[in-house]
Amino acid sequence: MNVIVGNKLKILRKNKKMSQEEVADYLDISQSAYARMESGESHSWASHILRICKIFGITPDELLKLEVNNKEISSGQIFNQLSDTVIEQYEERIRELKKVIKDLKEDKKSLKS
């Protein structure tokens, strides 16, 4: 979620032709603290969300939504999609590891023979 909001902050800031330092000054934080928000390293954007929205003229809901192919997707939908993808990747990795174990057991049996 931090990366999604961070990317959105960066786009909004650049569209307003503002520097990180200008936004940071408005939020009364350091430029490096704001840079961490944009990079997704920090979740402190949540404590500044109303002021951030005021700077960029958006609502909190707009900040937390992502557009994909001109369709708005909520952060919950993104989380669910990412969760499903991660689960599928782990399941595939488990299948691969089971095959490796099976092959190793077969190799061990053939060496004993």
From TrEMBL:
Keywords: DNA-binding. It comes from the Bacteria. The keyword DNA-binding applies. GO terms for molecular function: DNA binding. It holds the Pfam family HTH_3. CDD domains: HTH_XRE. Residues 9-63 form the HTH cro/C1-type domain. This is Helix-turn-helix domain protein. It comes from Flavobacterium aquidurense.
